[in-house]
Amino acid sequence: MDVVRAFYRAVNAGDAAAVAALYDPACRLEHVFPGDDERHGLEDVRDRWTAELARVQGALPGGARVHVTRIGGIETGWGWVRAEWVSAVRVKLVEGDAHAAGHSHFWIEDGRIRRQRDVRRELDGPSPPDAPPPVSARQYPSRPIAGIGAVILTDDRRIVLVRRTREPLAGQWSLPGGTLELGETLEAGTAREVLEETGLVVDVGPVVEVFDRILVDDENRVRYHFVLIDYLCRPRGGTLAAGSDVIDVVAADPADLDRYLMADKARDVIARAMMMSTHG
Question: Where do the structural domains in the chain lie, given as residue ranges?
Answer without folding.
Answer: 2-122, 145-279
